[in-house]
Amino acid sequence: MEAPLDAMDSSFQKPVAVGQSQAIQVLKEISYGSVAGMISKVFEHPFDLTKVRLQSQVLEGTVRFNGPIDCLTKTFRNEGFLGLYRGLPAPVFGAMAENASLFLAYEQFKSLIRKTILSPSSSSGSSSSDEPLPLRYNALAAGGAGAVTSFILTPIELVKCKMQVQMLVAPSVNAVGGAVKPPGPISVLLGVIRTTGLKGLWLGHTGTFIRETGGTAAWFGTKEYVAGLLLRRRLSRTSHPNSDSDSRTTTTTATTATSKDLLPWESAFSGACAGAAFNIALFPADTVKSAMQTEEELRKGTSTGAGVQPRSTFLGTFKKMYKAQGIRGLYAGCGVTVARSIPSSAIIFVTYDELKKMFG
């Protein structure tokens, strides 16, 4: 938004106020995304644990679970209720960081697009921060947000995935004269750094990058598209133009409506559609990523004993998984993931949108 002309007379004071306002808005975006991510992760964690365990067994010689229901049942029977929430602290922190980063970066990329692409070509020379973007630009901004977030998310998901498969190997590998308590998230994190260095925290990053970039474009793009349809449908039904001026007012309202005009159920429904789109878009990339991040824990015995084995590459793991179980193996856990992502994504967007309505 351009500063008013009289700001030229108080150039020292005005920029400070604008800077403070922008800083406050950034903090709000981070807070809204963090709260939304935390709430959704507590709901979805047992299903995420199921997904990771199903993905990680694709390259194993023996099949531990015959499907998501079998995995949930056996996990509850063998590890109890708390076993369903194994590794929860890492993904809760990850969900807070992920959603805060996603929403903040998404808004920043949209602002950048308005300034660099839309403003020069607009007749007025400016583009409002509340003005809806064309869908292709929303998808572009979302893809950029996903790419940025993937660098934050990979180390967090590495720790999460390693913790989620701990109990599958702990009795046979870690038992020394009795059961040994599996390491917590900090111990897992330090263990990775100790054995592979800081670079090792980004094991499987290619998969995360592909999933987050394309998936986030589908996530925000679907949400914006479906929300726009719902808004236009509601506004056209509730308006009854009796004159040309009324008709023009209705059209303007329908085309300039934003997420602040969404009803809670509209945010939830469009968010649910977005959740399904995110996971269906590039799910095999996530499967390969999970297999790479749990390889050390689940397949230690597959090495030939000739020293340290080279780490698997994304393409190499993809080929091995496809050879082992074909397309079916690459989509292991997809059903339960889509099923949990629909309500989870609905929770995220309705929480974020409502917080933004209340606090700006």
Would you give an account of this structure?
There is one protein chain. The protein has 360 residues and is an all-alpha fold. It has helices at residues 14-56, 68-83, 89-121, 135-164, 166-173, 185-196, 205-238, 244-256, 264-281, 283-298, 314-330, 334-359. It contains 12 helices and no strands.
Annotation field: number of helices: 12
SSE order in H/E notation?
A: HHHHHHHHHHHH
Report, as a whole number of angstroms, the end-to-end distance.
16 Å
Which descriptor suits the 3D outline? Answer: globular
Rg, alpha carbons: 24 Å
The description of the largest β-sheet is: none
Helix content: over 70%
Unreliable stretches covering 5 or more consecutive residues: 1-18, 172-176, 242-252, 301-307
Q: What number is the mean pLDDT?
A: 81
Strand segment count: 0
Percent of sequence in beta strands: under 5%
Structural class: mainly alpha
List the helices and strands and how they pair.
Elements: H1 14-56, H2 68-83, H3 89-121, H4 135-164, H5 166-173, H6 185-196, H7 205-238, H8 244-256, H9 264-281, H10 283-298, H11 314-330, H12 334-359
Helix pairs in contact: 1-3, 1-12, 3-4, 4-7, 4-10, 7-8, 7-9, 7-10, 9-12, 10-11
